[in-house]
């Protein structure tokens, strides 16, 4: 089967790869009790020189009930030459209807917003003055024993709750796994299938979030994922999950943002490279306030804390717009 796929790719002269999963937003609770049948649909809404944005929708189909959108997603696909493996131009879209023009405009807006988010990343530029003030307020409220103060007495006082809220160092709630990559999880290019990597990242991220909140959680969104490097068969994959930010959302639910970093390790040389960064958001449905908060200790952790805050705010804005249009 794999050899036939290789022949088909060589015959066509090109192949498609997933460059990124820009977002996945779960809009409604999905269980076997409230949904029996699902319909998945995809639509190419925007193309660049060698890339395209694909909007994906998952809908519930129930007899006698209106169709309900359960999840929306955006994927960035890239075309590669089958021989050189370099970028290959894709055909332009022919836009003919008002609906297609509207979708294309949305795709153009997504492209500009994605570029703006990349340029404004805290790995490139410092936080805004408002974010710096928020971070300083957190330090004043919760950060005793942080990078500014590190003696044994402050560490002991840090363990005491403040207003009933337990403080937890970000570094103390990391969860890590190491998994060997086997051929049964390969894709048509002889590398590890990206969906399998997403599953592993989701599982360790959920385990970490549920351990931190000490309760079951519901998936809200995948806030971003970029496939930077392929994962070879036979390598070891190190996944590290970190709780970046916690808050209470507009529906009074405890919400947790989790960052999962995937590093591939060459078993022969020991070289380690980052291949993926996953960002997930989960929530607790019972609506009770979370009695624990994550506190950064170093400047790097503080930037991760702010990135998590940004992700949670963006997710809340998207869900708010969706509810307003329903």
Describe the structure.
By secondary structure, the chain is of the alpha+beta class. 31% of the residues lie in helices and 34% in strands. It contains 6 helices and 11 strands. The strands form 2 sheets. The protein has a 9-stranded antiparallel β-sheet. A two-stranded parallel ribbon has the order 5-11. The protein is globular, with a radius of gyration of 22 Å. It starts with a helix and ends with a helix.
- Spell out the helices and strands N to C: HEEEEHHHEEHEEEEEH
Q: What is Rg?
A: 22 Å
Derived from helix and strand composition plus strand pairing, the structural class reads alpha+beta
Level of helix content?
25-40%
Beta content comes to: 25-35%
Number of strands: 11
Largest sheet: 9 strands, antiparallel
Task: Give the key terms.
326 residues; alpha+beta; 9-stranded antiparallel β-sheet; globular
Task: List the topology elements.
Blueprint: H1 2-12, E1 14-26, E2 37-47, E3 51-61, E4 68-81, H2 98-119, H3 129-142, H4 152-158, E5 166-169, E6 175-180, H5 194-213, E7 218-227, E8 236-248, E9 254-265, E10 272-284, E11 292-295, H6 299-325
Parallel strand pairs: 5-11
Antiparallel strand pairs: 1-4, 1-7, 2-3, 3-4, 6-8, 7-10, 8-9, 9-10
In short:
By secondary structure, this protein is α+β, with helices and mostly antiparallel strands.
